[in-house]
Amino acid sequence: MLLTITLAPHTDAYPASDLGFLLHKHPDRVQTIDAGSGTATVFYPESSPARATAALLLEVDPIALVRGKKTGPEAFALGQYVNDRPYAASSLLAVAIKRAFSTAMTGRCDSRPELAASELPLTIHVPACPARRGGADLVRRLFEPLGWQVDAVAPPLAAGLDWGPAPYVDLTLTGRLRLADALSHLYVLLPVLDDAKHYWVGADEVDKLVRRAEGWLASHPERGLITDRYLAHRRSFVSDAVARLAALDDASDDEAAPAASGCVVDEPTDRTPLRQQRLDAVLAVLRAVGARRVADLGCGEGLYLRALLDDPMFTEVLGIDVSARELDKAERRLERLSDSQRARVTLRQGSLTYTDPALAAFDALLLIEVIEHVESDRLASLEASVFGVRAAHVVVTTPNAEYNAIYGLASGQLRHADHRFEWTRSEFADWAHGVAERHGYAVEFRGVGEADDDLGTPTQLALFTREAS
């Protein structure tokens, strides 16, 4: 199996030979890695300031591959000896990519950090790529939404015979992407195209999928197919992955809600997702009030934590969530942080209905899309624990129930199954004014998202500022 990655910049801003720094593999050396199923060799057919190509050659040990083989498409006797495993890109190559380029996949490059974070002109070539049950069209459906220009040529199954095209393509991908993103696309999608894995698929595969496809799979138009194939059609794993991807993308609260109800919203595809608009709005509020120490209450998988740590203005960040599982996800989201960033963040398990006096030292507390998940009879406890510590600022966001009509939801229908309620603008204002009066805060309101003249914005935001004694 062969994979090549070519970098050929069109300017003199950086030499193409810096690809060696990004991949953490020196162009002048041939390096071999144990890939489990065989030996992976990394070498550079070319490396110059104008153009550099790194090649990953995987040589599979066919005896080791079938030893003890009990399951999978080659489990029958003849299939153990007559198969395409040593030649066609598959989960074998995906594992080799991870082992050979593990640091590059995290997006880390201490020598060239600006390049690791930049979109680069890349060309990726896989000469023998499976395309089972979909052919070249499937390859395009998987890679084109990720920003790749796809050239997928399917050769005939047998030259001179009318047997149709082979279930493989000669695949070339070109585009401007971060190298880490390109590697994650290959790691996830090569097994999907092959629709098989050479190892047993367990529950940990869900974690791998969510972690490696973070930032792109949740919004991919073929998310269902990718998830189903990657997890070997294991229904319980697929359900878990879909739920976690929905939470990661915040789709259950926003744009995906109408789809769940069977309705279709005619929205432009280039619209900034509501979750991103909400994140931008919250960060803008924090910067405006000069907050430097921020606690995210109900931090979930750490989307806001990561954004806060990317801005050196925020010198201390605390994430609290009642779910240990969510905190584990947040920890994985923060894996790529530098040492200086990690020193600024703390994760803690705890309930928001119990008072934590340490929160008083923070400049701002965040309750982002949290209160609607709390039972109505426990709102008073949450109010006392959050506002009772008298932090300088509290930022609260929650869905605007009136806007649900834009999504095609029926009156009283909630955007997410775990929501206990959703407030109209007047209901949210009544609650916020009551909280402010009871705890000595002033409150102001802002809308987040595209506004409707009659129904307002999809998200409503309240900024509470502690009044002087």
Automatic annotation (TrEMBL):
It comes from the Bacteria. GO terms for molecular function: metal ion binding; RNA binding; small RNA 2'-O-methyltransferase activity. Residues 296-382 form the Methyltransferase type domain. It catalyses: small RNA 3'-end nucleotide + S-adenosyl-L-methionine = small RNA 3'-end 2'-O-methylnucleotide + S-adenosyl-L-homocysteine + H(+). GO terms for biological process: regulatory ncRNA-mediated gene silencing; RNA methylation. Transmembrane segments: none annotated. Residues 1-246 form the Hen1 N-terminal domain. Its EC number is 2.1.1.386. It is an enzyme of class 2 (transferase). Its cofactor is Mg(2+). Keywords: Magnesium, Metal-binding, Methyltransferase, RNA-binding, RNA-mediated gene silencing, S-adenosyl-L-methionine, Transferase. InterPro entries: 3'-RNA_MeTfrase_Hen1_bac, Hen1, Hen1_N, Hen1_N_sf, Methyltransf_12, SAM-dependent_MTases_sf. Belongs to the methyltransferase superfamily. HEN1 family. PANTHER family: HEN1, SMALL RNA 2'-O-METHYLTRANSFERASE. This is Small RNA 2'-O-methyltransferase. It comes from Propioniciclava tarda.
